[in-house]
Amino acid sequence: MSAAEGPLVVGVDSSTQSTKALVVDASTGQVVASGQAPHTVSTGAGRESDPRQWWDALCEALRQCGDAAHEAAAVSIGGQQHGLVTLDAHGEPVRPALLWNDVRSAPQARRLVEELGGPKAWAERTGSVPAASFTATKWAWLAEHEPDAVRATAAVRLPHDYLTERLTGQGTTDRGDASGTGWWASGSEAYDEEVLAHIGLDPALLPRVVRPGEVAGTVHARGELPFSRGTLVAAGTGDNAAAALGLGLRPGTPVVSLGTSGTVYAVSTHRPADPTGTVAGFADAHGGWLPLACTLNCTLAVDRFAALLGLDREAVEAGSSVTFLPYLDGERTPNLPHASGLLHGLRHDTTGGQLLQAAYDGAVHSLLGALDLVLDADADRSAPLLLIGGGARGKAWQQTVRRLSGRPVQVPEARELVALGAAAQAAGLLTGEDPASVARRWGTARGPVLDAVERDEETLARITGVLSDAAPLFEREPNRN
Predict the structure, then answer these.
(1) Which residues are annotated as a binding site for substrate?
(2) Is Repeat set as a keyword in this record (predicted)?
């Protein structure tokens, strides 16, 4: 292990498809050890995972970190948002977790919005208009389709809550992840009793919301983990809030995250409440707000299209008027949960590389369309976009974002920003610092800036037109018989 200047901390990113663990020097931000292990996600109508896989993957990732993990003084978990984890009286999963990209609860989402005052009332109450990704809609779906599972449930958790509870033995969450449930009121920063009563969820089943900077507990698990007994455990948070910590974001700095899902967000001092539902009014992990727009189809959808074409993901070609809307898993932004992929404008001379570029264009169009709504009115619209996530280092992604945004793009050199943000949160427990200040001290946002190019208004307008014309097709519910 490399010599460390200060205490060691562990940051974890439990994402949709894998769990990554970093052991970080709290003084310098140097990553001294790392590990990673995969999970599986179901295919078909739903998207589900067994939470016990996340725990097994965490144990394996920490095992790969070796002795460094044993020396860590604090740990924090960043995890995929929105997932519904139902536990029985023994703490075992009642059923696989319903993940953020499971859109089966779209009818329940529509019904909840209508029954509790409409979009504006929801935005004012919770900061967001719930879509199929939100946990409240998933609980409503479960109550309707699997009432026996609901009756067997003794605790309801989010993915990061589940792992934190396995570490500490205590049911806790944080304001950032709680704000994506639909049952946490952003105005009062407390669980919303009316929403919970409406969906039939006993608040006693929910975890305690830990305040920013508060210790969630200490490690109590024996045998499976390398931590010393008594290692401090931070509150943890959702993946986007953790990445915001990992970048040390200041208000107004725009972020475009390219992962399985795509997101655009910025830290704000103002509580968001967008009645259109495009922007989710999330809380961040250290007392402010994180207005965010999310798409369901990003790198995974583009990679799938590249595989169908038999092309490398970088094998794009310009010069076509073909349009592809890559809504392979339905879509959240725009809110079209029943949509599928749509290809328009195909000609005899259209090449495979042009089709692939159209997939990139369609994915980025959805993200940039929400960017102005995410940013506060006084934000600098010419500032570089921070480009992060698994796709951020791909040349095709970089060039597509530059061309369709017309803005400079900065690609931070630091990798695994969700895990780094969790590590900064853990370090804050030891130093008393704001975790974002810790990340700024570590210099995590440093990286090359790609100059702005002229914005491709023609492509943006073409995609917008195709999307508008196709809306009636996208809004039809599929026949699953």
Answers:
(1) 81-82
(2) no
121 DSSP assignment: H
Domain boundaries along the sequence of the chain:
8-235, 248-412+446-475
Look up 349 and say whether it is catalytic: no
Q: Tokens at residue 286, please?
A: 């250290």
Selected catalytic residue, list 239, 329, 361, 434 = 239
C-alpha angle 375/289/337, rounded to 5°?
70
pTM over 0.85: yes
Whether the CB-CB separation of 48 and 98 falls below 8 Å is answered with yes
Q: What is the pLDDT of residues 230-281, one digit of tens each?
A: 899 999 999 999 999 999 999 989 999 998 889 999 999 999 999 988 999 9
Could you please state the CATH topology (level 3) that the domain comprising 8-235 is classified under: Nucleotidyltransferase; domain 5 (3.30.420)
3-state secondary structure 62-94: HHHHCHHHHCEEEEEEEECCCCEEEECCCCCEC
